[in-house]
Structures are given as C-alpha cells and as structure tokens.
C-alpha cells in the first residue's frame, strides 16, 4: 500500500460513516391535551409556537402608569436579569459544542533537563560526564476528531435544545414577573378606591354622629344613639387606617419588581381603577402555543433524548487525525534551523476495552433522565390546562356574581336613603339606621372586592395563555 493510500483509506471510511448518528431521533411525547376547553366552547388545541410575539398584553387595562412600570420591569428586574445571564451561558455552551467539529491547534515551547545513567556496574568504566542534557523544544500540534458516530452532533443537539429551553425559561420568568407586577398594581388601585369609599363613609358617619349628639342634647334621643354612632365611626376609621399598610406592601413589591429600592419609590393615588379587559372565549387555544414553561419542558426532553445518543456513542471507537511538527535542539544557537526540524502525522483509533460497566450505567442514567423529563413535560401541560380551566370558570362565576352584587348594592343604597329620611323625621331609632348603614358599606366593599378578584383572575388567565392571544407577528430575535 502506498503512503497516499494509507491516508486516503481512513478518510474514505470516515466519510462513509459520518452520515450516521447513534441514539434515538426525537419524537414529541404524547400528552393528554383535550381538543377544547371545558369552560368555553370554541377553544381548540394548537401546536407549540412560543416564538410568536405576545405583545404588550398589559396595555389591555388602559393605564399609562401601569404600562410605564412594566417597561421599567423589562429593563431592570433582577430575576429577569438572572435568567438572561443563564441564557447567555447556554449560548456559550452551544458555541463550544460547535467548536468541537473544527480542528484544534496548540503551540508549546519549553526547555527540559534530563539525566541518564551509564548502565554499568563497573565504577572504573563510569564516564566522567555528568550525564545531564538540556533539550530545547518548539512544537505546533494540530488534532481533529472525526464525528463518525454522531457523538459531537448529538452533543450539539443537546446543547442547542438546552439553550432554547433556557430562552423559554427567560420568557417564562419575564411573563411571571410582569404578571406579578400587574396584579400588585391592580390590587393597589382597588385599595385606593376602597380608601376613597371609606373616607366618604367616615364623613357621612361624622355627620350622623353630630346629628345624634344634637338630638340627644334636645332630648329627642337617648345617649345610646350617640354611643352607637361613635362606635360605627371609630370602626370605619380603623378600617381606613388598616388600608395604609396594605397599600404600602403592594407599593414596595412594585418597587422591587422594577429594580428600585422601596424607600425611593412612590405611587400617587389616581381616581379611576383600571378597566377589566374583554377576553374573548371564541379564539383558538393559545396554551400550547404561547406558554414558555411548556416550551422549556419540551426542549428539555429534546436535550435529554440527544444525551442518550452521546452516551451510546461511547461504545464505539474514536477516530482522530493528528499532526505535529517543530524544532528540537540542545543549544540555543541554531535552534530554529532545518537540521533540528521534526514532524509526525497519522490517524488514531481508540476504544476502551473494559470500564467496569461505566458506559452502560451512563446510558441507563441518561435514559432515566429522559423518562423524567417526559413526565415533567406532560405534567407541565396538564398543569397549564388546569390553570386555564380554573381561571376561565373563575372569571365566568365572578362575572355572574358581580351582576347580582350590583343589584344588591342598588337595593342597599335605596334602603339607606329611605332609612335616613325616616330617622331625620323621628320615625325610627338610630339603631335601625346603623344596621342599614353597615349593610350598605359592606355591600359597597363587596363590589370592590369582586372587581379586584375579576381583575386578578383576568391577569392570571392571560399569563396562563402565555401572555395574551394576539400573536401573528414572528419575533425578530
């Protein structure tokens, strides 16, 4: 065999074998996803498409200050910053895996001092030389591993899937933080509305107390009416004070979510509560398309599947080609010269013959990891379906309840008006007025609590759908 055939034969063999890749090809695991949602006809299952743009879903609430806060969160939230840094780490691993396909080169320059004995037991024959020798070496080495069994390709596949999962984790973290901020903001605005209600109620109760005191001094009513009016007023004032720390908690939470210290953050009161968005129930389901946590779980399955191929490739021999050359001399003078030149080139095949079952154990471990990620993916889908069903039925029930509660509020206001007129005319005792006033205030607060629950449920549903439903534009990045 000629020297040319000696190098061509391994190269041809590598080229023929490099088309295959050890390990199973990925197939999406089957999930128990229904064709439509139970709580709303018309919601149908769609294919995963988490790359679709979600849009500024928080703008549905029509509050410019909320919009500004979310934009601040997108750029300054520290939990999002952590996830973004993790994604950049995953991207670096992908670049490293791609670099494994290319040859590697290294340069080494060094000096060694060595000594070798004469090998004779006769001391009279021992050389007078010390036997110490200095050697100067300058060498360039190039090596390349042929990806015959697809180990490098499977490793790249796993790293790319992990990077995509990390990107989906980043989107999930951003969506989670946005949802938390919007919920906190909406609750804070409802507290502002409750504060205005209680302040107006306190003023009305103060007028009632003054009226009771005047009637007591005139001998029209007893002192018990004054005591009842005072009790009612103080209880309402205490409720008003209680709102202060509740509001402060939401304000501080918003400050941290936007990357600011609570001490330097303040949200002034506004007169209007953000509107409840109209969420259509006839759109195709976006759950599996839009939820980044489901996308992340599936891409983790892809990575685990590819890692099985990496583990199985360890059973097969590695093919590599190495080339090295340089200069070696015992003196600095004329070190880099043709007489001191050396080189070597040749293919190499390596195969572990015995490892005590380590490769088999590694394959079993990766197969178990794959089964674990499949189960996690399926559970994530089921959890997502459950969340959407829960929030949809919650919004529907709360909507029906709010209609009845509004009717109750109208009746309570009318009853309070009539009762107050009767008390002013001296037809009833103040105790009757207190009872009606308490009922009216409780009904007013119930209406606000229902509005708060509906607003929060709407945010949770939008987040459960992956961040809105208007996603016809592909993301540019």
UniProtKB/TrEMBL annotation:
Q: Which Gene3D superfamilies match?
A: Outer membrane efflux proteins (OEP)
Q: How does it sit in the membrane?
A: Lipid-anchor
Mostly located where?
membrane
Q: Belongs to which family?
A: Belongs to the outer membrane factor (OMF) (TC 1.B.17) family.
Q: Which residues form the signal peptide?
A: 1-23
Subcellular location(s) per record: Cell outer membrane
Listed Low complexity bias regions: 112-131
Alphabetically ordered keywords of this record:
Cell outer membrane, Coiled coil, Lipoprotein, Membrane, Palmitate, Signal, Transmembrane, Transmembrane beta strand
Query: Which residues does UniProt call coiled coil?
Result: 66-93, 153-215
Tell me one Pfam family matched here: OEP
Region Disordered, annotated ranges: 108-131
Q: Which InterPro entries is this protein grouped with?
A: MdtP/NodT-like (IPR010131), OMP_efflux (IPR003423)
Q: Which PROSITE patterns match?
A: PROKAR_LIPOPROTEIN
Organism of origin is Pseudomonas bubulae
Q: Output this protein's name.
A: Efflux transporter outer membrane subunit
């Amino acid at each position: 065999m000629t020297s040319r055939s000696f190098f061509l034969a391994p190269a041809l063999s590598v080229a023929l074998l490099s088309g295959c890749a050890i390990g199973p090809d990925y197939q999406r695991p089957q999930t128990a996803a229904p064709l439509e949602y139970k709580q709303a006809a018309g919601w149908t299952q769609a294919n995963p498409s988490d790359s679709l743009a979600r849009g500024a879903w928080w703008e549905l609430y029509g509050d410019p200050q909320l919009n500004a806060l979310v934009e601040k969160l997108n750029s300054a939230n520290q939990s999002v910053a952590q996830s973004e840094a993790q994604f950049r780490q995953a991207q670096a691993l992908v670049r490293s895996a791609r670099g494994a396909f290319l040859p590697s080169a290294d340069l080494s320059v060094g000096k060694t001092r060595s000594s070798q004995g004469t090998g004779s037991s006769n001391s009279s024959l021992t050389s007078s030389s010390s036997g110490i020798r200095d050697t100067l070496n300058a060498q360039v080495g190039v090596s390349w591993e042929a990806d015959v069994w697809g180990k490098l390709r499977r490793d790249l596949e796993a790293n790319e899937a992990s990077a995509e999962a990390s990107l989906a984790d980043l989107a999930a973290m951003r969506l989670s933080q946005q949802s938390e901020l919007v919920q906190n903001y909406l609750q804070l605005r409802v507290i502002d509305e409750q504060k205005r209600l209680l302040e107006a109620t306190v003023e009305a109760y103060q007028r009632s107390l003054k009226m009771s005191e005047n009637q007591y001094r005139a001998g029209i009513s007893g002192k018990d009416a004054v005591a009842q009016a005072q009790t009612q007023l103080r209880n309402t004032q205490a409720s008003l004070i209680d709102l202060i720390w509740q509001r402060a908690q939401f304000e501080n939470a918003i400050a941290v979510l936007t990357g600011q210290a609570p001490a330097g953050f303040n949200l002034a009161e506004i007169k209007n509560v953000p509107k409840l968005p109209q969420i259509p129930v006839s759109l195709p389901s976006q759950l599996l398309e839009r939820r980044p946590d489901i996308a992340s779980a599936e891409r983790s399955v892809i990575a685990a599947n590819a890692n099985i191929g990496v583990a199985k490739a360890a059973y097969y021999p590695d093919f590599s080609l190495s080339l090295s050359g340089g200069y070696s001399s015992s003196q600095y003078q004329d070190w880099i010269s043709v007489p001191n030149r050396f080189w070597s080139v040749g293919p190499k095949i390596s195969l572990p013959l015995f490892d005590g079952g380590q490769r088999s154990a590694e394959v079993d471990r990766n197969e178990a990891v794959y089964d674990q990620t499949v189960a996690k993916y399926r559970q994530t889908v089921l959890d997502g379906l459950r969340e959407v069903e829960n929030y949809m039925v919650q919004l529907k029930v709360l909507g029906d309840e709010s209609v009845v509660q509004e009717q109750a509020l109208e009746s309570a206001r009318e009853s309070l008006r009539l009762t107050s007129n009767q008390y002013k005319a001296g037809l009833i005792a103040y105790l009757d007025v207190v009872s009606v006033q308490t009922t009216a205030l409780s009904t007013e607060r119930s209406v606000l609590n229902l509005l708060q629950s509906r607003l929060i449920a709407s945010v949770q549903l939008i987040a459960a759908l992956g961040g809105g439903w208007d996603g016809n534009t592909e993301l540019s990045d």
